[in-house]
Amino acid sequence: MFQFILFDLDGTLTDPREGITKSVQFALLQQGIREPDLKKLEPFIGPPLRDSFMDFYDMTMEQADRAIVDYRKRFAPIGLLENKVYPGIPEMLEHLKEAGIRLAVASSKPETFVRQILEHFHLDHSFDVVVGGNMDGSRSEKDEVVEEALHRLGEPDGKGAMVGDRKYDIRGGQEHGLTTVGISFGYAGKGELEKAGADYIAGSVKELEAILLSGGKSKKKGRKAKKAAESEKTAQPTKAEGPAKKAEPAKPHGRPERRAENGSASASVPGKAWHIMFPFLLYYLGSNACYIVIVTLFRLVLERGAGFEWMHENSVGIANLAKACSMLAGAAVLFVPFRKQQTAWQARTQVSYPTMGILAVSSAFGVNLLFGLLQIAAMSVGYYEVERMQYQIPFLPGLILYGLISPLAEEMLFRGLIYNRMKACFSLLTSGIASSALFGLYHGNLVQALYGLLMGLLFSYAYELTGNFKIPVMMHGLANICVFAASYASPAGAGMAAGTPVYCTVCLLASVLCLVRVQKKRRPLGQS
Fold first, then answer.
1. Pairwise CA distance, residues 307 & 191, whole Å
2. Are 179 and 186 spatial neighbours (Cβ–Cβ below 8 Å)?
3. Cα–Cα dist 173/375, whole Å
């Protein structure tokens, strides 16, 4: 049996003919090209749009990019839902999930469109991972999309398959050693899938389901499922005859059927939990090992009677130095898994840095002022000790610690690794809330746990919105710096208890206005 299966979207799970061809027709018209016959535009279904405009209409790359912008002007509001799910697909996906197979979508279509389509047709909960291209045209080649899907699945072991209706899907799967299954009810040309070297070709959803549930044992290139079934008597049997439910009852029903929120079978829950929390364990061990080493060194110095008075006078500074070093050590330990995570550093949307910076600062001030007015700090004895330690550090070292070291280390852990790994197993909302809750609990007291939860949700939102890891790092750093600087200078204390309802309201209102502006102004790179 396959352990995981990747599906193309257009022409494989859904029939997008009307939406895509009419949107291409609209884009061509903006370029002065009239194409009344939608049938001629069907080859646009499947391949990257840029390649299709260049190949079929001899456009330059610049012209093709302009055509893509025009295409999306119609596709996003209208063409996206001029689409329909092939009959039998929802049932097939459910049967595959019941068999414990991990499912993913790997489409060259922009990921935001892929998610909207799946959500509209209520197919989103069938998939552990959803991967599409980027709006700026990057990650549009099929092998790149497949690579990202495998990465988000956690570089899965075992046998996997790629299912699609075009040669691009077959070649993308072959690049990564997957069994390839073509479907002839999609938009492939005559002989296209055989020529591409598909391992199997299914003529219907029922045949496709049988191939996928049987695990595809034959390596006969380009054989249709029907022929593969007929050859079962020979030395190369390839698929179970009839409905696969007959051949597979023991496996799905032989183990508990608890499900995660995204619908994935629970057989791999311990593995998923380990995969998600392993970075936290690495960070905890690395940072604490460094802290223990530093404290031990200082104790050895004290035992020799050297520098006692200086250490006593600068105990808070020494503690903060140890904290900074331990954070750097934890970040260093995370460097290898963080690098493998391939976290994006380039924005996929035109959201401005100033707006996101103002959002971070106004939210940080607003939440702190609200906590002060509600006297939440009084509920946590531990917070006062943490507060005392934080704000006795000299100003410049404090800016470095809270404005640079802490944001980078914590964002690497909670957004770069934990949140990204959660997204491969759960919905975006669940991943955002869970990773933000961990971020809050990590601080060790009620006040900072609540503050960390709220700010963590904001940072996760910003990261998901932009696809740019620099944004949450910047926002985290700015929030820390501004609150630290204001509290450092305020004789009223770090809790901002002296804040008034007016100041609090102004800050929170500014945050809301920034969010509204971000939602209205955000647009993919390449659009005007």
1. 82
2. no
3. 57
Share of the chain above pLDDT 70, in %: 80
Q: Count of H helices and E strands in the chain? A: 23, 9
Q: What is the pLDDT of residue 216?
A: 67
Confidence of residue 398 (pLDDT cuts 50, 70, 90): confident
Q: What is the DSSP string of 66-132?
A: HHHHHHHHHHTTTGGGS-EEPTTHHHHHHHHHHTT-EEEEEEEEEHHHHHHHHHHTT-GGG-SEEEE
CB 122 within 8 A of CB 89: no
Catalytic (active site) residue 10:
no
Q: Is 259 helix (H, G, I), strand (E, B) or coil?
A: strand
Furthest CA-CA distance within the chain:
91
Burial of 262 (0-12, 13-18, 19+ CB in 10 A): buried
pLDDT band at 312 (very low <50, low <70, confident <90, very high): low
Q: How far apart are the first and last CA of the chain?
A: 47
Task: Note the pLDDT tens digit of each residue in 326-339.
Answer: 999 999 999 888 87
Task: Give the three-state DSSP class for 486.
Answer: helix
Phi, psi of 87 (to 5 degrees): -55, 135
Instruction: List, in sequence order, every residue forming a beta bridge with 259; answer none if it has no partner.
Output: 265
| 240 pLDDT higher than 50 | no
Of 413, 417, 486, nearest to 452 (Cα)? 413
pLDDT digits (tens, 9 = 90+) for 346-362: 444 567 789 999 999 99
Cβ contact 89:127 at 8 Å: no
**Contact assessment for residue 149 and residue 172, using Cβ atoms and an 8 Å cutoff:** no
Beta partners for residue 133, in sequence order: 110
Give me the residues paired with residue 85 across strands. Answer: 14
- Tell me phi and psi for residue 389, to 5 degrees: -65, -40
The label of the residue with tokens 């600087």 reads 485
Beta bridge partners of 183: 202
pLDDT of residue 307: 62
Out of 38-47, 146-155, 261-270, 303-312, least confident range:
261-270
Bridge partners, 349 (sequence order) = 524
Q: Is the pLDDT of residue 451 over 70?
A: yes
Closest by CA to 342, choosing from 220, 460, 469, 458, is: 469
> Whole-prediction pTM value?
0.51
